[in-house]
Each structure stands twice: as structure tokens, then as C-alpha cells.
Amino acid sequence: MIILGVESSCDETGLALYDTERGLRAHALHSQVAMHEEYGGVVPELASRDHVRRALPLLGQVMRESELPLSAIDAIAYTQGPGLAGALLVGASVANGLALALDRPVLGVHHLEGHLLSPLLSATPPAFPFIALLVSGGHTQLMRVDGVGRYQLLGETLDDAAGEAFDKSAKLLGLGYPGGPAISRLAEFGDPDAYTLPRPMLHSKNLDFSFSGLKTAVLTLVKNHTSNLCEQDKANIARAFVDAIVEVLVAKCVAALKQTGMKRLVIAGGVGANAQLRAALNAAAARKRFEVFYPELALCTDNGAMIAFAGALRLQQNPAAATRDYGFNVKPRWPLDAIDS
Predict the structure, then answer these.
(1) Does the pLDDT of residue 137 top 80, yes or no?
(2) Phi, psi of 158 (to 5 degrees)
(3) Considering only Cβ atoms within 10 Å of each terminal Cβ, which end of the chain, N or C, has fewer?
(4) How far apart are CA 55 and CA 313, in angstroms?
């Protein structure tokens, strides 16, 4: 069975073909980072318009790379939510329009489920059950995963997500957008002993997160320097910020594993590509004797491959999950633990 995946939830347009017998056949991605950079963040209307421009050319690229005709597609999966409403509508309309033209079934996929299952596309996939840390854009959640569609929320952010804290703190340091990769690179040159920032909810005795206070602490440091913030000061603040956020994320992951008695941890979402987080988790795994799994780096960001793969798993579990009723809707707000199993 060959599934076409369409992703358009925010500022990346991704299309991919997943073959249940041969694996990922092809995937193509266009990032809008350069377009949104001058605005310091994603402009929803511009994002939607760019998805319109990119979707069909990317479809053509995927079909050429796979050396398959459109008629080889057995079903189409698309991101139904959560995300920006206008952006989601572009992907949904492309997927449903193509499905109607080809007379193929179509199904909506939860964006975070795509991220959650993306490590299963790697060369060494984890087995169920496992604990998953979802750190994607506006989401920071710890989930217990017992199988496809069998998710239990263990903890989540009460305010800013980790990705938001990265972007906002980077902006305070004048690093532009997107902030996560920039602040992580700068942190490599920082002195770990120069500043100490708070570790929000590190000792809260639950699995929730809160990062708005950490962002405020960065703001206070920056203001204290007034106009005398040199490059080394910026690097030192970046290092203190990254060290704080990584310590909290790792501690909560270890606590979730201890609470559930599990020995497998999956990291999914854009922040999962962070080098400092991966190094700290790998060190913790060696000390605490658990396994940690990551998506391939190319699949940490939003992409069509994870949507095609999640759609394929859904269809293998329940072929009736797809429909030929092409009247679609999108779900900009859609809790992961509210989807049907």
C-alpha cells in the first residue's frame, strides 16, 4: 500500500510517499523560514499563500523521485490539525482534491501523532510501549504510548513551550528567527559558570513544564546589561538558557520513566534536533540504563514523511479510517489524547 502524505500545518510544506512494503519512497520539503525571518515570526496569511504555491510542484518532485505514477497512490493522508487554520486548509484541499480526482480514500492525521511516530521511521525504531517527549513548536508534552492511537498525557507545559522559549529568548539576544538553532549554536561559545538561570518546575513533583519564567529571566539579564551586551555576554546568556531548559527536559523525562517503570524514551519534534539536549539525554540514558530514540534529523522538523507514515499505520490498523467523502474540515486546536484509537 502506497500512501501520499501532505503536511502544511505551519511554515513548512511537505509531501512524501510511504510504501508499507518498501518504506519511505520519496519526500520533498519547502521551508518558509527565509520568508518569515524579516518579520521575526510566522505570518499566517503569508504562510497559507506560500503553501498554495509550493504544494503541487512538491507533489511533482515526489512522484519523479519515486518513479511512480499518480495512479500508484492507494490513499492520501493530510495534516488535519493542530496548526494554523489557513495553512491546514491548503493541505486539506490539495489532499481531498487529488483524492477525488484519483478516486482514492483520504484521511486526516494529527500533526503531533506524526511527530510522535516519526522515530519508527529510523533504522533502529523503538518498540511499543514507550515514553515520548513531544517538543514541537508550541507543544511540550510527555506522553505514555502503548500503541498507535493509544496515548496517555502525563505532563505538559502550563505556559510557554520549550520551542517558544527558545525563539523568544533568541529574539531578546538579537538572534532573529528561527531562534532555536541560533541560540543553541551561540551557547557552544558560552561560559557555563557565567550565569545561572532558574529551572522552572524542576522539583514540582509532577511532569508538567513552565518556561515563561525562564524567558523572563533572560529578559532581566539582557536589560541589566543595557547597551553593553557584547557577543561573549550573549553567548554566556545563551549557554545559561540552554543548560537550564535541557536540565528540566531531561529531569522530567527521567521522572516519567521512573514513574511508569518503562525503559524506552522517544524524543520527537523540532527541539529534538537540539545537540545539547541529545547529548544530555544520551548521558542520562547511560547512567540510568534506559534507551533513547530520535527521529532522523531530516524528520525532526515538520514533514510529509511523518504524515504519510502515520496515515499508513492508521490504515493498517483500521482500513475504514479513510473515507471517500471529500467534504473536509480542519482542527486548528486538537488535543493529541482526544484522537480516536
Answers:
(1) no
(2) -90, -10
(3) C
(4) 23
